Amino acid sequence: MGPRVLIVNDNDDGLFLLRHAVAKEAPDAVLLECKGANLALTLLESQPVDAIITDNRMPDMSGIAMVRAIRLHDPTTPILMITGSPEAEAEALAAGVTIFVGGGTWDEIRGKIRALILN
Fold first, then answer.
1. At 64, which CATH number?
2. Total count of domains within the chain
3. Which long-range contacts link 93-97 to residues 24+ away (Cβ below 8 Å)?
4. Domain contains 1
């Protein structure tokens, strides 16, 4: 069994793209998906994961707020934030994001996913 990867994104297209990017980089990964930060926090109470990939802008809670909540109980799980808001980088990293992507090509994003999951 491969790494357990949680993808958090409120957008169906975002989930689809990330699901396929993770599958390409880590074909044996076990994927878990949540369509919002609150659902992700609930899932993490009962299921450990090896890595988290999240968006920042979500209607129920920002990805940054979710990362802060995760870091209260889990300081080590690697978290990749992929967002269209490059100005959020400093705040995201201060909150505990391991790798921040504020744009780039899909090849670059897949490289960040590979670094997150395989390290």
1. 3.40.50.2300
2. 1
3. 95/64, 95/65, 95/67, 95/68, 95/71, 96/67, 96/68, 96/70, 96/71, 97/64, 97/67
4. no
